[in-house]
Write the C-alpha cells for this entry.
Amino acid sequence: MTAAANPAMRAAAIQMNSGADVDANLRQADALLAQAAAAGATLAVLPENFGLMGAHARDKLAAQERDGAGVQQEFLANAARRHRIHLIGGSVPLASAVADRVWQALVAYGPDGRRSARYDKIHLFRFSDGDEDYDEARTIVPGDSPAWLETSAGRVGLSICYDLRFPELYRSFGDVVLIVVPAAFTFRTGEAHWETLLRARAIENQCYVAAAAQTGSHPGGRRTWGHSMIVDPWGVVVASRAEEPGFVLADIDPLRIADVRRRLPALEHRSTIDVR
C-alpha cells in the first residue's frame, strides 16, 4: 500500500515535566493523554523518562520493571485501551541481565491494550560541560536492533532522544510515514540542536516526525529544553509548544507525504555505494 492510499492518522506529542514521584508523573501523563484523545489523537507519544526523572541517574534502578509487568507498563496498556489509541511510552526502565544497568525501553501499545512494539535505546548519551556531566552507559545497557510499529496509516519508526544524532538508524526503518522521538534533551543541547536535527530527519526521510519532550527543571538540578513539535516531510514545523507541559497535535497526511516524494524523489535516488 502506498503512502497516499493509507488513511490519515492524528498524532499527539505529549510534553511533560516529570519528577521523582512515579505516581504523580503518571497522573500528569493521564490527564494530558485524555486531553489529546478528546482532541482526536489516534496515536500519542509520551517523552523519555515520562514515569521518572529522579535526582540521580541511578534512581531508575529502583524503579526498574520486569519486562511485561510493572506500574508504568500497566499504565500504558490501560491508557491505550481506555482511549482507543496507539500509545508510545517514551522509555521505561526494564530489568536487564547486567547488574546495576537497565534497558532504556520504548514500549508501544495498541488500542486493544496489547503491546505492539519494544525498542531498546541504542545510542547512549554522554556529555560533559562544566556543571553538567552525563554518561548513560553507567546505568543503561545499549540496545542493538532498530524497531518500528505497523499501523493502518503505515510504518512508524521508533527512536529515543540521543538517537536523533545518528541518521543511519532512521534509514534502517525503510518506508515510514512517521518517526517518533521521545526525549529529555538538556537545555544546552536542545537550544543548540533540537529543532535542526528534527527537521533534518524529516527532510531526509520525507516523512513526519513527532518529538515529545521533557521540559523545565527536575530533581537534581537537571533542566530540559521542551519545545515538543511535529515536523512535516518538507521540514515545516506544523505544531510546536515552547516550555509549558501540554501537547502538540497534527494530522499525518498521506497525501502530503506522497506529494513531497513525487516532487522530489530523493528516496529513489539513494546510492547503493557502501560509504562506511
Observations:
- The domain at 8-264 is CATH 3.60.110.10 (Nitrilase/N-carbamoyl-D-aminoacid amidohydrolase).
- The first strand starts at residue 9 and ends at 15.
- The chain has one domain: 8-264.
